[in-house]
């Protein structure tokens, strides 16, 4: 059930986990950001509902850093299960940092009672529908990143950066359920 008691800004509104780079924080591997412009995000920011996380930085990786991909055939779930790894373009195994960042993202979400996340597409951490195929050749395959997989496993609904309206609807539906339950 949505925990409205943890909602922020004194408005009684639930919070949403958002990739830090979508909020304009310069945390991407290349030192840049991917600031998103959408009315839903603007509203969440104005109402104090957006909670930023960069799992890779949280996991201990520097910025800038070499780009990383999940090894071929793998996905976030298989990394978490120990059946795939995350390697950077320099050949380093960064699996532990990605797994640590995912756990910290989940802890942050749970601390705020978060049930909905909007994360950056295609990232080996934040991707929610497609990720790169492990060859550093720009090819994408169906699958999610390590953080998205862990959040989903915990029951958090993860959306991509082009699904702001769907995320807002999901949040509204969860709020309605929570309100209805509170009236029983
Ligand atoms: S890990 Fe997620 S939040 Fe951090 S830069 Fe990559 S896509 Fe953005």
Structural class: alpha/beta
How is the quaternary structure best described? Answer: single chain
State Rg. 16 Å
Fraction of residues in helix: 25-40%
* Principal-axes shape call: globular
Ligand inventory reads: iron/sulfur cluster
> Into which percentage range does the β-strand content fall?
15-25%
- Sheet bearing the most strands, described? 4 strands, parallel
Strand order of the biggest β-sheet: 2-1-5-8
Helices and strands, in order, run as EHEHEHEHEEEHEH
Our count of domains comes out at 1
- How many alpha or pi helices? 6
**Low-confidence segments:** 1-10
How far apart the termini lie comes to 14 Å
Would you tell me the overall average pLDDT? Answer: 93
Total beta strand runs: 8
Q: Can you characterise this structure?
A:
This protein has 184 residues and is of the alpha/beta class. It has one domain (4-183). The chain is 34% helix and 15% strand. It has helices spanning 39-46, 55-58, 76-80, 95-111, 146-153, 164-183, and strands at 16-19, 50-53, 68-70, 86-88, 116-119, 130-132, 140-142, 157-160. The protein has a 4-stranded parallel sheet with strand order 2-1-5-8, with helices on both faces. Strand 1 (16-19), helix 1 and strand 2 form a beta-alpha-beta unit. Helix 4 packs across helix 5. The longest helix is centred in the C-terminal third of the chain and has 20 residues, at 164-183. The two termini are 14 Å apart. The model is unreliable at 1-10 (pLDDT under 50). Bound molecules: iron/sulfur cluster. Iron/sulfur cluster binds next to helix 2. Pfam families: 2-thiour_desulf (PF04463). InterPro entries: 2-thiour_desulf.
């Amino acid at each position: 059930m949505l925990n409205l008691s943890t909602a922020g800004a004194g408005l009684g509104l639930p919070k949403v986990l958002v990739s830090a780079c979508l909020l304009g924080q310069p945390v991407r591997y290349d030192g840049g950001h991917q600031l998103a412009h959408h009315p839903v995000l603007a509203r969440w920011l104005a109402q104090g509902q957006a909670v930023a996380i960069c799992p890779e930085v949280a996991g201990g990786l520097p910025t800038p850093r070499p780009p990383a991909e999940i090894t071929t055939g793998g996905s976030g779930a298989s990394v978490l299960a120990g059946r795939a790894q995350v390697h950077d373009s320099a050949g380093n195994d960064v699996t532990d940092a990605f797994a640590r960042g995912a756990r910290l993202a989940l802890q942050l979400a749970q601390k705020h009672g978060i049930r909905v996340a909007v994360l950056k597409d295609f990232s080996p951490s934040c991707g929610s529908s497609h990720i790169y195929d492990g060859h550093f050749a720009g090819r994408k395959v169906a699958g999610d990143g390590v953080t998205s997989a862990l959040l989903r496993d915990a029951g958090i609904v993860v959306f991509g950066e082009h699904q702001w309206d769907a995320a807002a609807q999901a949040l509204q539906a969860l709020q309605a359920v929570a309100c209805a339950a509170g009236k029983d």
